[in-house]
Amino acid sequence: MLTGRLLAEYGLEVGFEQSQYSIARWITAPDRKTLEDFLAANRSSLAEDLDGDPVLLAGSAFQMGRAKERWETVEFTDVKDVRKQAA
Predict the structure, then answer these.
(1) I need a labelling partner for 52 at 20 to 30 A (CA). Which of 18, 29, 77, 86 fits?
(2) Confidence at 84, pLDDT banded by 50, 70, 90
């Protein structure tokens, strides 16, 4: 339906692929060094939100659990707390 509408209204041919990721979590760390180490070790599974904050993308709950086990001091949240940024 969306592909047909984009073609009809805008002349755009588009295709969709299923994402390999099903979980996204915002990342915070107790210090800059820990955050930088985490980001360097997980470059292929990272994205940035509209504010430029890092988001870890995982394909399964198992992968998310492994990240939590390996990085015990890193906090993974499913909802971004914008109040922390305002402070």
Answers:
(1) 18
(2) low
Segments in 14-81 forming alpha helices (H): 32-41, 61-70
For residues 60 and 65, give the distance between their C-alpha atoms in angstroms, rounded to a whole number.
9
Which amino acid, 24? A
Count of alpha carbons within 13 angstroms of residue 10, beta-carbon side: 8
CATH of 19-79 given 3.40.640.10, 3.90.76.10, 3.40.50.1980, 3.30.70.3280: 3.30.70.3280
Task: Give the amino acid at 16.
Answer: F
**pLDDT per residue over 1-15, tens digit each?**
899 999 999 999 999
Domain locations along the chain? 19-79
Per-residue model confidence (pLDDT) at position 82: 72
